[in-house]
Amino acid sequence: MKKLLLLLPILALLAGCSNDFEVAAPWKEIPVVYAILSAKDTAQYVRIEKAFLDPQTDALEIAQIADSLYYPADVITAYLERSSNNSRVQLTRVDGNLEGFPRRSGIFATQPNWLYKVKTPSGQGLAVGEKYRLVIKRADGKADITAETTIPNNFEFRIPNQQQSPPLLNFFNTQTTSISWRTDVNGAYFNAYLTVRYREEAPNGTTLANKTLVWTAFKNQRRSDNLVGSGVNPYAGQAEVNGQDFFNFLADSIPAVTNNDRFRYFEFSELTLEGGGGEIAQYLSTASVASGITSAETIPSYTNISEGFGIFTSKNRTTLGNIKIETKTVDEMNRNERAVRLNFRY
Asked: pTM for the complete prediction?
């Protein structure tokens, strides 16, 4: 049986997937749309393509022909609408390779790499808690292709405590460190990044260097589905971070001190929480309905695009600054076989 190949490159965050959809019907146009809107980014990108089927030619061969993947420039026009005030901006077709988003080599043609772009107004960003609608108009008079997503509200840190000054964070050799937060329903999957700042000093107290590292504390952490409160962020998320992983990251990233010619001290750090993908959660939930030994032969395919396949979703990012990594962490490092060689002090 012929297979209809669909490109499924979730631009993201948070998840990725690829599927083959079996078809038996004659060829027809099937839109394929993917995007993750970001509340903090200065530009938004949408991938708009089409599925293809040729009964005379192998699908893998057609996949290398760019004209088989993309709509001609004069065939579709894409808009991004804000639902609350019905404002609309038109997206511009750009080559992702020239925008710093090269397409990975593989089944599909990599040149050109057409995306649809809209710049976010300077200093404004997309509004959190707002619903945005993608509208793709076709020159042949067919119905608009549409999709909607709501930007997650700004997240609230509970651990570290964002109400504390400074917020405190510690890592241990034999126990985990909790990181917890609150979110609205539109935040589903989360990544966290710790920006570690430290200085190096000579034994006489002279500063030798100020350095920065970024550590991925966790990825794809699912929040709870249970309501824990009211207000704009009634859902809770929590991740347990392994202290040994943090110490190994430092040991892999920082040269060991061999002759006691320098000491290192933690400066204030930052914890960034990135989350969203409510539509991705629905996608995974739909797929799980048909999983397992008693599942149906055909797995239902989730999409929130009005016609065709794809996911139109969104994310947000919140950063907690001025975090103090306490002396307990330094004590633990000095009892750690690898981290002790880094010569951290307090």
From this structure: 0.84
